[in-house]
Amino acid sequence: MSETRQQAERAKQAYFKLQTMDRTAILHDLASALRTNAGIVFAANQEDLDAAKDTLSKPLYKRLVLDEPKLRDVVDGIEQIAAMEDQVGRVMEETELDEGLILKKVKTPIGVIAAIFESRPDVVPQIAALALRSGNAVLLKGGSEAAHTNAALGKVIRDALCKHDIADAVQLVSTREEIAELLKMDDLISLVVPRGSNEMVRHIQERTRIPVLGHADGICHVFIDESADLEKAIRIAVDSKTQSPSACNAVETLLVHRRFARMNELLGALKTAGVDLRMESEFGHEFLDLILSVRTVENLDEAIEHIRRYGSSHTDSIVTEDAASAQRFLNEVDSAGVYWNASTHFADGFRYGLGAEVGISTNRTHARGPVGVDGLMIYKYQLIGNGHISATYKGPNARPFTHRRRA
């Protein structure tokens, strides 16, 4: 048996064990351990940054940085996750099928998760915390560019988990070859979560039978309607592009109603902010940089049609003072996040109050948008009877079901 399969086997056993443990205490210990060992993590990150200085693209290099503000946000997120109500075992619905025959729909973890990501080492503790809160075990595979940082974070996390005798609930997978092996383990792994480039996500989706939760592109749009307030339009467009241009929630195309009277001022503000504007070109492209395609549209219908054609169902926003137009946009744009008068950069698990996210999903099943604790859980049905048999409810003298919903 390979080492990777042994890891997955140990993760499965840790998953079963985790169901009976005080996951809140584990999370508090994890947050404390990260604070205590911050210096070790920063030193490891500097090694990775030094090695990647002349080899990584600017967007990936930015994602590789794990400094004090980023780690503080990570730890705050873990504390937020720890403060959440434990959902494992919560009864979602309860139905009386007949007298003494009760059906319960109960929240449960998914199982063992394989998370595969590029560059961003801060996702290691984020995904670990979300997995632990939801009762899942996780195998983490980061990119080689963050090898030192990931190893340091992995040691801090496992040392914290060792105190609870549950270290195998979070494990790092080290080599690229092991990814291919993980993707074949549908008997042990229940979900794959990729975070990275479009090519990486598609590569994984095409090579596994395990369900994949993720998005291939972050083609986000901001539509400036004819009634948009200029100040709001500038604030939202500039923030959506410049706050973190390499993030998947950054706007990539600006659509402007042809009757918006202040277009030159809007575009001037974007140029002043350092944005390279590509007029009427390169739609559907994820720049991940201070580059923005711009198109003038005739009306709201054309804006919605453009998003349907070129968008990736990630996050799209309308800037308007017309409530009817806003409501149409919110209803008719079929994306994971649809906003009115707000920056696309709000598409984030921490900002949604989820503590963190394992990623943003553009799927149309199970979980969508920033995926936090709830998106890492499923449910099972528990049926409690008293000698009930199905034959009682069949045939000419069948006893009827009551199907009475209980509070």
Short characterization:
This protein is α/β, with parallel strands linked by helices and 407 residues long.
Please describe the topology of this protein.
Blueprint: H1 3-18, H2 23-36, H3 38-52, H4 58-64, H5 68-83, E1 91-98, E2 101-109, E3 112-117, H6 123-133, E4 137-141, H7 147-162, E5 170-172, H8 177-182, E6 191-195, H9 198-205, E7 220-224, H10 230-242, E8 251-257, H11 263-272, E9 276-279, E10 291-297, H12 300-310, E11 315-319, H13 323-332, E12 337-340, E13 360-361, E14 369-370, E15 377-384, E16 404-406
Parallel strand pairs: 3-4, 3-6, 4-5, 7-8, 7-11, 8-10, 9-10, 11-12
Antiparallel strand pairs: 1-2, 1-16, 2-15, 13-14
Helix pairs in contact: 2-5, 2-6, 2-7, 3-7, 5-6, 10-11
Your description of this structure?
The chain has 13 helices and 16 strands. It has a six-stranded parallel beta sheet with strand order 9-10-8-7-11-12, with helices on both faces. The relative contact order is 0.14. The mean pLDDT is 94. The longest helix has 16 residues, at 3-18. The protein has two domains: 3-85 and 111-213, 3-Layer(aba) Sandwich (Aldehyde Dehydrogenase, Chain A, domain 1); 220-346, Aldehyde Dehydrogenase, Chain A, domain 2, CATH 3.40.309. β4 (137-141), α7 and β5 form a beta-alpha-beta unit. It has 407 residues and is of the alpha/beta class. It is globular.
